[in-house]
Amino acid sequence: MSIQAQLPDHQLLRLEELLADPALPDAMRLDECQGYLCAALAGPQPIPAAQWLEDLLGCPEESGGEARREAAALLRLLAERLETELASGQPLLLLLYPADGDEDAASDYVPWCEGYLQGVDAATEDWFEFLGADDDEEKTSDEIDYLDEHLFPLYLLTGDAEAAARAAGEEWPAGEELERIRQECEDDLPQAVSNIYRFWRAQRGVGTIRRQGPKVGRNDPCPCGSGRKHKRCCGANES
């Protein structure tokens, strides 16, 4: 696992230990925490710290004892550093564990992405509803298209995009084609996460955003390469 990130190595290692402490049996892993925090700091309004701490540590403030208090302090520091990194507009350095705990294996993106999407679900205001998404409309706003495009890597890497396509009776890429798309999503994810954060800052009237390449509308071909319209493929998860 790469630990060159927002906190010094010794603080990240200590946070890992605390998250695995028996006093916090329902705490998330460090990679899941970072993913969740990236979403919690974004959105129409950031999730209050008291809420995201309870979600990350799996218990309210009055529970967990000293382990919770120390972990909460480190998570607050992590969130502060993380917000600075996201605001820079540079690709985020992700905290990832190797798949199956094998140090020689490739990084496992799934828990990180699942943590992020849990943070999206925990938002007080639904991200797409806030932007005026309407399933009955053929056209969507540039803002919705932008968010669709940048959330796509998360939905593909978690398998949600495939599940939606198969539920709709659509074909799904396989073999080398799917591997190529997955690799592209892994490569795109760090910048996409930073772009989403800055997108929501702009929505709140703080800063501006720049589109990184052409937008993908819901009636455009899906960028996963399936040949279907985006709204009938990976975009189905975002309706």
SSE layout and pairing:
Elements lengths: L8 H11 L10 H11 L8 H9 L7 H23 L9 E2 L8 E2 L1 H13 L4 H4 L11 H17 L1 H8 L7 H29 L36
Antiparallel strand pairs: 1-2
Protein name: Preprotein translocase subunit SecA
Pfam family, one: SEC-C
Organism: Candidatus Accumulibacter adjunctus
Task: Explain what the structure shows.
The structure is a single chain. The chain contains nine helices and two strands. It is globular. The chain has helices spanning 9-19, 30-40, 49-57, 65-87, 110-122, 127-130, 142-158, 160-167, 175-203; strands at residues 97-98, 107-108. The model is unreliable at 1-5 and 207-213 (pLDDT under 50). It is mainly alpha-helical. The chain has a single domain (11-71, 79-205), classed as Four Helix Bundle (Hemerythrin (Met), subunit A), CATH 1.20.120. Helix 1 (9-19) packs across helix 4, helix 2 crosses helix 4 and helix 2 (30-40) runs parallel beside helix 5. A hairpin with an 8-residue loop joins strand 1 and strand 2 (107-108).
Query: Average pLDDT, to the nearest integer?
Result: 85
Oligomer: single chain
Could you tell me the CATH topology label: Four Helix Bundle (Hemerythrin (Met), subunit A)
Q: What's the CATH first level?
A: Mainly Alpha
Using DSSP, what is the number of strands?
2
What is the overall silhouette?
globular
Pfam family, one: SEC-C
Protein name: Preprotein translocase subunit SecA
What labels would you give this structure?
single chain; 239 residues; mainly alpha; Four Helix Bundle (Hemerythrin (Met), subunit A); two-stranded antiparallel ribbon; 9 helices
